[in-house]
Design goal:
alpha/beta, Rossmann fold, four-stranded parallel beta sheet
Length: 314
C-alpha cells in the first residue's frame, strides 16, 4: 500500500489544529512504578465532545467541496462519532444526518440532538443502519462519512499522536485502543513519520479481538459476539485502515474484562480522570505485558470520557 505522504499529514495537522483542543499530557508516578515504564497520557477525554473522534470529523468535513457542505453529511453511529460529526458540522455550518439504532442510550441521542444532529432511528442491525444512511444520501444528497474507514477521518485521528510526539519526541511506543481501526491507523501514520525508533501498539478486549485475529490471518476478521464493557471497541476494521494497520502496527495486546475494569478504576482513582472503558484498554495492555516495556518511555492515548455514570463497572 502507498501510504498518505508526510506532507498530507502535515496539511491535516494545520487544518485540524484551529478547530480542536490541544489536549493535556499527564504523568503518574504510581503508574510508572506499577509498569516499570515512563508513561505519558494524551488526554483525549478532554477533547471537544469528549473524545478523539472530533479530530477526524472536522478534517473530513473541511475536505468537502462547498456544494457537498451545503447538502450536508450523514453517518451511522450509536456512539462517539455520532456526537463528533454533529458538533463538527454545527461548528462549520453544515447539516449532519445521524442514523442511530433504536436501542442506543437516550443520553447519547440527547447529546447528538444537543449538538444539532438530525437523528433517524433504525433497527439495531448494521444492515438497517447502512440502508437508512444510503436512503438519506439519495434523498438529501448528503455525503456519507464512515466513522473509521475513511482516509480523511483516519488522518484527522492521527493528529492526537502527532501532538504527543511533538511534546515527547523520545517515545519508544504509543498505545491506543482498537475498535474500528481509525485511531490506531492514524496513530501509526504519525508514528511512522514523526517517531524516532517508536512503535504503535494496540490494546483490544479478548471478547472482541477481531483486529488481533485479522493481523494473524492477513484478512479482515469479524466477531460473532462482542460481550465487552469496552463498548466503543465492538466495531470491525475496514479496507482503508486495515492495510495501514497491517504494515505499521507492531503488535496488538489482548486483555480480559477484569483487566479493563481494573485499569479504568486506576485511571479514576489514581489519576482522577473520567475515562470510558475503551480508554482503559491500552493501559490494561501495558500492565499485562509490562515486562516487555520495562525502562521504556510509553505514550497512551486516552481515547474518550463519554461514560454513563449510572452504569459504572466498579
Amino acid at each position: 500500500m502507498i501510504f498518505p505522504s508526510e506532507t498530507k499529514l502535515l496539511e491535516t495537522i494545520s487544518r485540524v489544529t484551529p478547530h480542536v483542543h490541544q489536549t493535556p499530557v499527564i504523568t503518574s508516578s504510581f503508574i510508572n512504578k506499577l509498569t516499570g515504564a515512563e508513561v505519558v497520557f494524551k488526554c483525549e477525554n478532554f477533547q471537544k465532545m469528549g473524545a478523539f473522534k472530533m479530530r477526524g470529523a472536522i478534517n473530513a468535513i473541511l475536505q468537502l467541496s462547498e456544494a457537498q457542505k451545503k447538502a450536508g453529511v450523514v453517518t451511522h453511529s450509536s456512539g462517539n462519532f455520532a456526537q463528533a460529526l454533529s458538533l463538527a458540522a454545527k461548528n462549520l455550518g453544515v447539516k449532519a444526518y445521524i442514523v442511530m439504532p433504536s436501542n442506543a442510550p437516550t443520553v447519547k441521542k440527547e447529546a447528538v440532538k444537543g449538538y444539532g444532529g438530525i437523528i433517524t432511528e433504525s433497527e439495531p442491525t448494521l444492515q438497517a443502519r447502512e440502508a437508512a444512511a444510503s436512503k438519506i444520501e439519495r434523498e438529501k444528497g448528503a455525503t456519507f462519512l464512515h466513522p473509521s474507514n475513511n482516509l480523511d477521518v483516519i488522518l484527522g485521528q492521527g493528529t492526537a499522536a502527532s501532538e504527543l510526539l511533538k511534546k515527547h519526541s523520545d517515545l519508544n511506543a504509543i498505545f491506543t485502543p482498537v475498535g474500528g481501526g481509525g485511531l490506531i491507523a492514524g496513530t501509526a501514520l504519525s508514528v511512522h513519520y514523526f517517531g524516532k525508533n517508536c512503535r504503535t501498539i494496540g490494546g483490544e478486549p479478548m471478547a472482541a479481538d477481531d483486529a488481533f485475529r485479522s493481523l494473524q490471518s492477513g484478512k479482515i476478521e469479524t466477531n460473532t459476539t462482542a460481550n465487552t464493557i469496552a463498548d466503543g471497541l465492538k466495531t470491525n476494521l475496514g479496507d482503508v485502515n486495515f492495510p495501514i494497520i497491517q504494515q505499521l502496527v507492531s503488535d496488538i495486546i489482548r486483555v480480559e474484562e477484569t483487566e479493563i475494569k481494573a485499569a479504568m478504576q486506576l485511571l479514576w482513582e489514581r489519576l482522577k480522570l473520567v475515562t470510558e472503558a475503551s480508554s482503559a484498554v491500552p493501559l490494561a495492555a501495558l500492565i499485562r505485558d509490562r515486562h516487555r516495556f520495562k525502562g521504556e518511555k510509553v505514550g497512551i492515548v486516552l481515547s474518550g470520557g463519554n461514560v454513563d455514570l449510572l452504569n459504572l463497572p466498579f
